[in-house]
Amino acid sequence: MYFLLPFAYFIFLLIDRSQSPKIHLLSLLTISGLSVFQAFISSLCIMFIGALLTYGLMAVKNISRYKVFLILPAMTPSLFIMTSCMGWAQLSGFELQPGLLAVVLIHTLINAGFAGLLIHELILSRMGSQWQLARIEGAGRWQLLKASFSSLKSELLIITAGFFLFCFTSFSVPLILGGSFAKTLEVLSYEQLVLNADLSGAFIVSIFQMLIYASLFILIRQRRDLFLSAKQFDFKDYGFPGLALILTLIIVALAYSGLIWELPRGVSELFTNKNAIDLLQYLTARSIFYSLTSGFIALVLASFMLFNLGNPLMHKLMVAFGAISASLLGISFFVWNIDVQWKLLYAYSILYFPIAYRFYGPAVFSKLYGQNQILQTLGGSQWQNFTHILLPQALPSFLRLAGLVAVWTLGDFALSSVITGETETLALFTKTILSSYRTEVASVLCVFLLFLCILIYLLFEGLSYVSRKRLSIEH
Amino acid sequence: MKKAVFALVIITILFSGFGLYHVFKKYNRFENPNAARPQLIVYTHSSFMDIYGPGPQIEEAFEKECICDLKFIDAGGGQMLLEKLKLSPNQRVDVVLGFDQLILKTALLSVGWRKLEVPEQTYHPIFKNNHYKTFIPYDWSPMTFITRSEKPYEPTAFKDFINSVPNASLSISRPSISTPGQLLAFWVYALSGQSKDGFKDLLGVLKNKIKFQGPDWSASYGLFRKKQARYGWSFLTSLLYHSEKAETEYKAVPFTEGSPVHLDYVGIPDSCLSCGLAQSFVDFLLKPEQQKILVEKNYMQPVVQLDLPQLEQLPDLKTYNFENMDAIVDQRTEIINIWESIIQ
Asked: pTM score, two decimals?
């Protein structure tokens, strides 16, 4: 109900207007096929580079110094990453033409770091003990890696599906660099709204998008939890020294060099405008408020899912719900006559919680479902089981989930700009600045936004770490 | 580690409190039942109302004159703005700023508008082309390709231009979702004699010359400014911005057929609450002082006769006169479908 309520009034409006969709079935099917193909190629590339990065991270003793840099591109507005990449392409004499290659490249740049961290954690948590044993037995590096990737096939497939979802529902990157061959259903939905005012068409595209993703989810079943042990292992011998550093430097340079060059001019232009400084202070406070509150709402929603652990259907529906169209969600909220603050908070939770849940929810669910069954059999009250046994185990993962939602909220402008016309957040302010000639000022604001994203990310990571230590989660 | 986390938590609580305070401060100010000043709600686009745009100065000057509260709201542009007006008829809006000429007919059919009174003063000839009683243009600019060049560009025919430029050298905004892009598509269609075959032939040549089709003007022009393309489809008045920044290498391409003109319009919907105040705002916007602000901050040309040194620096481009713009706009979907099928 929570996730479907905003659409109820919107569907009522559509029925009331009796507007027939203007979209052609052939066009819908063609773009669906192109979206799936692009997402498939992108997710494969992301996982490949992620696997290389994992190989490099094995040789690193303390990966925490890499974490922030690797996850940063996922928090950065994609326009800046695209512009930076195109600058490098031009320098190297390589033409980055719009199309499938450009979209795949940008998607890989944005997500490969995050993929590397996930795969690294997956291998260590699931295979850590076996690797220790294998090392004693004298197993070689390639033997271990080959065996690990074979036995973790289904888990790697789950992670790949998460990135598939991201690329499948991608909007900004295919909009700017996609051309016709790498268009997504999200772009098609937006075009229906903007060009034809075809709300029914946009709604149908959105439903189609969700159905495609839900079918994928049905095909991929998760048999066991992704991440287990929190123990630290030292596998420096099995990693490739220096590879993680090289790849991280490449990612950071490609993604951010375009921003850095424009900073001096942007800073001087920003600080000559007194109104800009006042507005910046005001918007920073509001942005952090929205971000932290969204994170808290995500934590509450995740806890609610956990409380209803005995109902696996709810979990499956949440995982399948990931592919909602941001444009349509924005319009659905726009027509509601409630205060913009509550609209934004509600909308952020609907858009970002399912995606974040996709990464952390299944692991928690599969780990605790069996426990919950036993507890219920033993006769414990649902509330007691939840507060004393289930939640302490799930809290570290839920805090990281909340952190993801908080960071995405901080950087959101696509959804917010449809819902509200007021400059409510720093990200929206950056977008309006981009719409005038001042791209240098926008670069400065983007760097500031990234800094805030890092702070928020570190906060939730820290809370997750502390909760894991305090609650002594060991397997 | 624990101390660091604790410190972060404290900072977070302080920021949250600060944020909450600002949220409710703003909430209370907007809902203040004791507010004596009348309010005027104006829907416009982001570049108008941002702190570098004309909005803040116009707001300050108007509020002093009317003793009222003027509030700008970013409603996006074009079709999205119209959809918002249609979907939320009870949402308060007194003035709509920023419609272009391509959407006016749809706007007239979708929503009710009040007849506007035009203040008596000397207007630019471009103003006289306005035949709408419910919409008034408040600024305008020819559209053309902007490039970086040491010398001014010689006038050229459009067909010669696209044949002479290198492949993958043009950055434009996508006609399916952007007004400048649509204007380009309609202009090319008109230049082809409004014939589908002629249009397809021209697009066949143009297709290889386009490097980027951005989602909007700011993305496509931004890519051009970052030297990702040699030519950017933009307003002639972009040169005003570059001149302000002492970027003298930017030049406009003059076309012998004439360049299409972009006009921004203002209208007052029937559902206005402060309708009298809304008409006062329209009159205010057309005053020479505010038109000067639009030149300096919105980087567009005024609709009134103004002697400004920066306007004299602009090249005097011939403007293209569409014989039957309404008929072309009626074929919007078909034209854009042809464009999308050829330009990939």
From this structure: 0.79
